[in-house]
């Protein structure tokens, strides 16, 4: 049976991050955090993919206009300098219980940097400043500068780069996917051809696309960024996506995409987790990030930590000039066998 794990994490204390209770061999923990306590991380493991984010700090949560939804600060009693650190892993049909949460600590020394939809400027500065030891893992949309008499948009094509850079320590191969700018009914934005991409689930490969549908994955890197799918040895696939992303005919047994850029993770009949990442906007030297989460439940008796009324949007800025504001870490197991495509 296809199995998907996810982790939700919250902390407003700088320096804290996620430590898994059931730590996996051959897994990677990738963490973004700020000195105000923001944590955003992605985990790639031999049998799980998960992410974490701060949803208690009032400095990072901003209510959506006309949402009419409950204020998370008031619900969870989060203050300026205190808060709760919660985490849990759960799979299809599992219950999400408050008493399963625990706290972990992230040491000051960083092993690497996770690049997210931006050029290598921040990565190079972090390494040169000694904030990180290695450029451990990165995926960037490197835009090719081209001039056209027919359009003012000089960003017409480029490459999406994924994988590791130190083969002695990291077992991922450096790979690139050519991308082209398209504007058709079925293909709009910067698109990656998926016709040769296959997903491995429990040693069984199947195409990422439907034969009767378009075979491209499209996004707009100038206004949004995308975390592309990753493949582990027997890992399920997870997309964490921007609002401009669409994948014609993409299919996954436990992952459904919506027209608004939301991906829904089904954990049994009455448990659906919506994860939406949108408005990745580059303004000058700053990368603005807006995210929202929503756990839906059919019955008030369901053992779920938060419901539809707790959905909020997350907005923050990673300043690419001030290294004290934002940095990242990537910790890999030397026995990992992770592939990115």
Can you put this structure into words, describing what you see?
With 341 residues, the protein is mainly beta. The protein has two domains: 35-132, Beta Barrel (Cathepsin D, subunit A, domain 1), CATH 2.40.70; 175-340, Acid Proteases (Cathepsin D, subunit A, domain 1, Beta Barrel), CATH 2.40.70. 4% of the residues lie in helices and 36% in strands. The chain has two helices and 23 strands. The protein has helices at 72-76, 121-128, and strands at residues 6-7, 28-34, 39-44, 49-53, 61-62, 89-90, 114-116, 137-145, 155-162, 175-183, 188-193, 198-201, 204-207, 216-219, 230-231, 246-247, 255-257, 263-266, 271-283, 286-297, 312-319, 326-332, 339-340. A seven-stranded mixed sheet has the order 7-8-9-10-11-14-16, with no helix packed on it. Residues 1-123, 134-176, 196-214 and 219-341 have low confidence and may be disordered. Residues 1-328 form the Peptidase A1 domain. Residues 1-15 form the signal peptide. InterPro entries: PEPTIDASE_A1, Peptidase_aspartic_dom_sf. This is Peptidase A1 domain-containing protein.
Summed up, what is this model?
InterPro entries: PEPTIDASE_A1, Peptidase_aspartic_dom_sf. It is built from two helices and 23 strands.
Task: Write out key terms for the chains shown.
signal, 6-stranded antiparallel beta sheet, Peptidase A1 domain-containing protein, disordered C terminus, Cathepsin D, subunit A, domain 1, 2 helices, Peptidase_aspartic_dom_sf, 341 residues, mainly beta
């Amino acid at each position: 049976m296809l199995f998907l794990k996810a982790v939700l994490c919250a902390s407003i204390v700088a320096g804290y991050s996620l430590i898994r209770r059931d730590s996996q061999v051959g897994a990677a923990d990738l963490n973004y955090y700020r000195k105000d306590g923001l944590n955003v991380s992605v985990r790639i493991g031999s049998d799980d993919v998960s992410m974490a984010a701060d949803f208690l700090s009032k400095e990072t949560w901003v209510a959506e206009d006309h949402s009419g939804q409950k204020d998370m600060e008031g619900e969870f009693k989060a203050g300026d300098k205190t808060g709760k650190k919660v985490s849990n892993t759960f799979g299809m049909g599992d219950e999400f219980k408050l008493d399963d949460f625990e706290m972990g600590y992230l040491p000051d020394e960083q092993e690497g940097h996770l690049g997210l939809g931006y050029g290598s400027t921040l990565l190079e500065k972090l390494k040169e400043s000694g904030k990180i030891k290695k450029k451990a893992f990165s995926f960037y949309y490197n835009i090719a500068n081209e001039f056209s008499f027919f359009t003012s948009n000089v960003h017409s094509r480029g490459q999406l780069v994924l994988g590791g850079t130190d083969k002695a320590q990291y077992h991922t191969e450096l790979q690139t996917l050519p991308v082209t700018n398209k504007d058709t009914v079925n293909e709009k934005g910067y698109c990656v051809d998926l016709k040769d991409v296959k997903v491995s689930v429990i040693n069984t490969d199947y195409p990422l696309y439907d034969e009767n549908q378009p075979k491209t994955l499209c996004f707009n890197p100038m206004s949004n960024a995308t975390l592309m799918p990753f493949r582990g040895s027997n890992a399920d696939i997870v997309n964490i996506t921007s609002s401009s992303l669409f994948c014609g005919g993409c299919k996954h047994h436990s992952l459904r995409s919506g027209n608004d850029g939301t991906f829904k993770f089904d954990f049994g009949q009455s448990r659906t987790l919506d994860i939406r990442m949108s408005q990745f906007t580059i303004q000058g030297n700053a990368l603005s990030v807006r995210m929202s989460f929503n756990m839906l439940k059919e019955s008030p008796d369901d053992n779920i930590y938060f419901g539809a009324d707790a959905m909020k949007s997350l907005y923050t800025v990673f300043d690419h000039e001030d290294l004290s504001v934002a940095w990242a870490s990537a910790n890999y197991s030397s026995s990992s066998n992770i592939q990115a495509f």
